[in-house]
Design a protein that fits this description.
alpha+beta, Arc Repressor Mutant, subunit A, 3-stranded antiparallel beta sheet, 13% strand
């Protein structure tokens, strides 16, 4: 669930994905682990939360990924 009613808003995937987007806006494309390091420098989050953010952003066609581990911003 993206916006549950029993969790603080800053702990949602919706909110945390905004930090992933903000990092990709700067570089347009990044390797998965490098992107994770950049996002963590801005907002501490677990790797599993980061993965859920990427999954959600992929499903709504904001990012793409390739077989080499590169994440690219689509918008």
């Amino acid at each position: 669930m993206l916006l549950p009613d029993n969790v603080h808003p800053d702990q949602t995937i919706y909110y945390n994905a905004s930090f992933v987007i903000s990092q990709l806006v700067e570089v347009r494309q990044a390797e998965l682990l490098i992107l994770y390091e950049k996002v963590r420098a801005q907002r501490p989050m677990s790797f599993s939360t980061f993965q859920l953010c990427l999954d959600w952003l992929f499903l709504i066609h904001v990012i793409e990924s390739d077989d080499e581990g590169m994440v690219t911003l689509c918008i």
